[in-house]
């Protein structure tokens, strides 16, 4: 069961805790977005070309 399913199940069991479950999902989405950005953009932008012109 993934986090979204767990939060939905928690909401169905305890409807008064909707704001708590929503905040957990927001935090999880934020973390996933940051990991995606780090993996796909930051790591790929640091490609260094090295040439040896001392021949």
Notes on the structure:
This protein has 55 residues and is an all-alpha fold. It has 2 helices and no strands. The chain has helices at 3-13, 18-42. α1 (3-13) runs antiparallel to α2 (18-42). 2% of the residues are buried.
For the biggest sheet, the summary is: none
Mean pLDDT: 77
Q: Over all CA atoms, what is the radius of gyration?
A: 21 Å
Number of DSSP strand runs: 0
Run of helices and strands: HH
Structural class estimated from helices and strands: mainly alpha
Shape: rod-shaped
C-alpha termini separation: 60 Å
Strand content: under 5%
Question: Helix proportion of residues, in percent?
Answer: 55-70%
Low-confidence stretches: none
- Alpha plus pi helix count: 2
Short description:
This protein is mainly alpha-helical. The chain contains two helices and no strands.
Keywords:
about 55 residues; about 0% strand; mainly alpha
Q: How do the helices and strands line up, and which of them pair or pack?
A:
Elements lengths: L2 H11 L4 H25 L13
Helix pairs in contact: 1-2
């Amino acid at each position: 069961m993934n986090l979204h399913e767990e939060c939905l199940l928690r909401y169905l069991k305890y409807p008064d805790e909707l704001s708590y479950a929503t905040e957990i999902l927001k935090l999880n989405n934020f973390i996933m977005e940051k990991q995606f950005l780090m993996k796909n953009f930051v790591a790929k932008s640091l490609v260094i070309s090295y040439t040896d012109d001392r021949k």
